[in-house]
Specification:
375 residues, alpha+beta, FAD/NAD(P)-binding domain, D-Amino Acid Oxidase, Chain A, domain 2, 2 domains, 8-stranded mixed β-sheet, 13 helices, 18 strands, 34% helix, binds flavin-adenine dinucleotide
Amino acid sequence: MKDEFDLAVVGAGIVGLSIALAAARKGKRVVVIERGARATGASIRNFGFVTVTGQEAGDHWARAMRSREIWMRVADEAGIEVHHRGLLLPARRSEAVDVLHAFLATPMGEGCKMVTREEAASMVPALRTGEVSEILYSPHELRVESTEAIPKIAAWLAQRHGVSFHWSTAVNAIYGHRVETSRGPIHADAIVVCPGDDLSTLYSERIGQYGLKICTLQMLRLKTGHPQTRFGAAVMSDLSLARYEGFSALPEVQALASRLDEEESETRAAGIHLITVQSADGSLVVGDSHVYGNAHDPFAQTRFDELILAEFDRVFDLPQREIVQRWVGSYVSSGERTVLVDRPDDHVRVVMVTGGTGASTGFALGEQVIDDLYS
Ligand SMILES: Cc1cc2nc3c(=O)[nH]c(=O)nc-3n(C[C@H](O)[C@H](O)[C@H](O)COP(=O)(O)OP(=O)(O)OC[C@H]3O[C@@H](n4cnc5c(N)ncnc54)[C@H](O)[C@@H]3O)c2cc1C
């Protein structure tokens, strides 16, 4: 086994793969070391929704724009299907309409526009347009199936870029340039740790200083019972405007949030908002709830499913829908930052996306970390 590399990356989620790609493009000899036999963390449990509109204004929104560009190239080269593009944001409440107009007036509104009910229905026929006041369309978003995309990116990195992968191998400690794994040591000039929500194995004392929480989410897959149901865009709802920082930081959100707290207090307390995307077989991935704590919560609440479906039924006219899959996922969360790059040593970085946006921003973050590491 070759055990000397320019760069060792710990973790084969989207963040680790993004770091590996950026380094391989600089001609570095890279090894990715992953505890699992394959990636099974947040990166394959998400919506596969590469979101731009709604990301926090400034650096993070720019990361999403850049990551989307990289996703398109990677998808093309690695043979990953983009199932649909763009995002529809139907506003039902007048306060939500105010948020959409305020958003359009920001630099992040570039390329986005209001569309008519007919235009929206031509993209997503199941939308209940009659109950909608106005609808924003964003062209930027991409939807991939993460359970396929993540393994394909890993295989493509290995084949096309010569990245080595050590699966089923845990990294237990890092001493200088020596990476202690469960299968013996690896030497690397530089090391980037991308541990997802594992806050206790590597550099736990340093990570502990950031006061991170673990956010647990519930997700559903629905069969629609309607073979013609086509989603030509992702769909979110009023609840999303009060959660996604690109909207929720706008002053106009306060009136919406107060109304939602009054009308949907249980839903809001469970951190529920609506994202709906479609898979190749026509099924819909629908979510999600957000509960914050100091550990991943393995127990899914039936009540959360009911609340998610209640919002789904307000937005879509798909009475035959049926749950065919349920799962939970988790990610690290910080109230203060969207990403965390810690520097335990000149040649070591710990990298986390501290919110639910790693699929949307990981590729650009990977470039930033590698540029900094080799500057
Ligand atoms: C339900 C859900 C929905 C989401 N939806 C979206 C979305 O639509 N769009 C979006 O942009 N983001 C979304 N996110 C967020 C996004 O999925 C995460 O931000 C992202 O996947 C984090 O990637 P990661 O590589 O840091 O973590 P992970 O995917 O968790 O990967 C970390 C990996 O590191 C490995 N590891 C950790 N420690 C060690 C060690 N010591 N040795 C070896 N291996 C180790 C783990 O085994 C794991 O495979 C969602 C998240 C969830 C949970």
